[in-house]
Specification:
The chain is of the alpha/beta class. It has 10 helices and 10 strands. A 6-stranded mixed β-sheet has the order 6-7-8-3-9-10, with helices on both faces. A 4-stranded antiparallel β-sheet has the order 2-1-4-5, covered by helices on one side. The longest helix has 18 residues.
Length: about 260
């Protein structure tokens, strides 16, 4: 479902601020893969996600989504293949619109817009069913303004909106980092349930090693713009934080010095 071939991205080339953010990155995700991505600050995690989303184009290499070459497609044309949830719960939704209106916008994404009446009774019933599965009480607040929701409720709604059209690829950019620990657990459980239910191919960045190990069928660690670890199957199931720290040291030639990742 995703094929990344030898991509490079350098910011501020030929200046004192030159930064090689992606350095010959290749990656292949099969349909239904749920891959967690971890690494320290400046490892290239967010750059990789932004490159996939088309926020900026790569310097060289190729990106295929469902065998479609999207390498030179701008962000707005690439968006029809993707669902994305950001770190900030305020992004991805319209705060002054109702929950039902936000879901309707997500459902109509990529469709022809007409002057027909807004949301039908059938659509509202469907939205209530979907919201009930979140177990956050939102199904009884269908017309509530999204700006009145808590961060966790809003992030769960954003996740539902991003997956509503069953995208080819779901990108989760540290989508629980701004939440308190209890709410983060709830959103991650919701994430796992939605991904499994719809068999969504998913790439999830996280700063938390325990979350990276506990979720998904595959774990990738990045360092200095490269993928240095790629662990899946039985090896991932048996993985511990200590194992991961040791593997990082062997692969990178240095100890991991990132309190946020180790204490997350």
């Amino acid at each position: 479902m995703l094929r990344v071939e030898n991509i490079y991205k350098t910011f501020n080339p030929n200046t004192v601020n030159e930064k090689k953010a992606l350095d010959d990155v290749s990656l292949r995700l099969n349909e239904g893969d749920f891959v967690t991505v971890i690494g320290g600050n400046g490892a290239g995690k967010s750059t990789l996600l932004n490159a996939l989303a088309g926020v900026w184009l790569v310097d060289s290499g190729r990106i295929y989504i469902d065998n479609i070459n999207v390498t030179r497609l701008p962000e707005h044309k690439r968006a029809k293949y993707l669902g994305r949830v950001f770190q900030d719960p305020m992004m991805g939704t319209a705060a002054t619109m109702g929950i039902d209106e936000n879901l309707a916008l997500a459902a109509r994404r990529g469709k022809f817009r007409s002057l027909m009446p807004g949301i039908t009774a059938k659509e509202k019933a469907h939205y209530k069913e979907l919201l009930a599965e979140l177990d956050l009480g939102l199904e009884t607040r269908l017309t509530s303004k999204v700006g009145l929701l808590s961060g966790g409720q809003r992030q769960a709604l954003t996740l539902l909106m991003a997956s509503l059209k069953k995208p080819k690829l779901l990108l989760l950019d540290e989508h629980t980092a701004a939440l308190d620990p209890k709410t983060a657990v709830k959103v991650l459980e919701t994430t796992e349930r939605i991904v499994q239910k719809d068999n969504l191919t998913t790439l999830m960045i996280t700063h938390n090693m325990k979350d990276a190990i506990a979720h998904g069928n595959r774990l990738i660690m990045m360092n200095n713009g490269r993928i240095i670890l790629d662990i899946s199957g039985e090896e991932k199931k048996k993985l511990t934080v200590e194992d991961l720290l040791e593997k990082f040291a062997v692969a990178s030639g240095k100890e991991l010095d990132n309190d946020r990742m180790m204490l997350g």
